[in-house]
Write a structure and sequence with these properties.
single chain, 349 residues, alpha/beta, Rossmann fold, 2 domains, six-stranded parallel beta sheet, five-stranded antiparallel beta sheet, 11 helices, elongated, MoCofactor_Util/Proc, Cytochrome oxidase I
């Protein structure tokens, strides 16, 4: 499943190639609560067709009315980019379905040139991070390859956004949990690959749309060339498969590296990597484990929800509160249980 950003850009390019008139809309600034984050995009075709989203739907309807229906058969105009703001008053917020106090500012690009889309998509399809800069005074778009995922910026005159290839996820171990994680990851826009050299596992894999590799995981990680949009998760429960793959992953710039296992297994893994492979506590700080957030999950589907919640939080640079840590929550639960046992012992003494 392609990421929504790539889908918007590719669709806008295809519409322009077909001779359609197109409006590209980007969320440039927000105040208070907003349905979509800055950088979110949508493309609007002159006949009212929309791909992508900048709100819950009401603002899209208003843009369709203003820039298609209201302009009749001619469709979208061709002019310099403009900035529009929605939700300034409480009446507008109510009308457009914005949360209480929510305001957002949109940049409208009328009939953007097709050539920069071709260049941008070529870079993204080849795995490049590309910074797209728009000068609102001229409508000029400049593209720059970059190695850092810079934050979206807008100063009223220039808009800059870093776009990258779709997010990827490499799963090690083709068990039941991996199937649920793969499905959820695809729904969230990840391109998923499963790696497992064990025939009895890989031959029963049944999730469509997932790349399947039956080789040793450490070799696969190296060939995968993990980047800042890659998550690598070891789910095999087999140290012979997981450990070497994790060592390779830790040498990469993958944004998320994690391994399934209990607190005891997680500590044993860390001890092995330090004792036998020269890792340190500091070098293992990027290794998540036990993976997931604490929601009391027991079944594979519930554990997959927990794991994907943590992956998405890391992807979105959200610092999770300590009480959501599985290790901390279970440790506190153990201590609470021990206190109860001790209290009962004292009462029965």
């Amino acid at each position: 499943m392609e990421s929504i950003d790539l889908l918007v850009l590719r669709t806008a390019r295809d519409w322009l190639s077909a001779g359609d008139r197109v409006l590209l809309v980007t969320v440039a600034r927000t105040w208070g609560s907003s349905p979509r984050p800055v950088g979110s995009m949508m493309a609007l075709r002159n006949d009212g067709r929309v791909v992508g989203s900048v709100s819950g739907g009401c603002i899209e309807d208003d843009l369709i009315h203003k820039y298609t229906t209201a302009h009749g058969a001619e469709g979208l105009p061709q002019r310099l980019p403009e900035v529009v703001r929605y939700g300034v008053s409480s009446d507008e917020a109510h009308r457009f379905g914005l949360p209480c106090g929510g305001t957002l500012e949109l940049v409208l690009e009328f009939m953007p040139a097709k050539e920069p889309f071709d260049q941008l998509l070529a870079g993204l399809d080849s795995g490049q991070l590309v910074r797209r800069e728009l000068d609102l005074r001229t409508g000029q778009v400049n593209l720059h390859n970059t190695s850092t995922a810079d934050q979206f910026t807008f100063d009223g005159q220039r808009m800059s956004s870093t776009l990258g290839p779709g997010y990827r996820m490499l799963l090690i171990g083709a068990g039941a949990l991996a199937e649920y994680v793969a499905v959820m990851a695809q729904f969230n826009g990840f391109q998923v690959t499963i790696c497992d050299p064990r025939p009895q596992y890989i031959e029963s894999w049944s999730v469509p749309g997932v790349g399947v590799i039956q080789e040793m995981p450490d070799d696969v990680v190296r060939a995968f060339s993990p980047d800042v949009r890659t998550a690598i998760i070891a789910l095999s429960h087999d140290p012979k498969l997981d450990d070497l793959a994790l060592l390779e992953a830790l040498q990469s710039s993958a944004f998320y590296i994690g391994a399934i296992g209990s607190r005891r297994n997680n500590q044993s893994r860390r001890d092995r990597l330090i004792e036998h492979f020269g890792e340190t506590q500091e070098s293992l700080e990027r290794l998540h484990g036990p993976i997931g957030i604490y929601i009391g999950s027991k079944t594979p589907p519930e554990i997959a929800v927990s794991v994907m919640a943590e992956v998405i939080a890391v992807k979105n640079a959200v610092a999770l509160p300590g009480e959501l840590s599985i290790a901390k929550a279970k440790t506190e639960s153990d201590l609470s249980g021990a206190d109860k046992v001790q209290s009962m012992s004292l009462e029965n003494a």
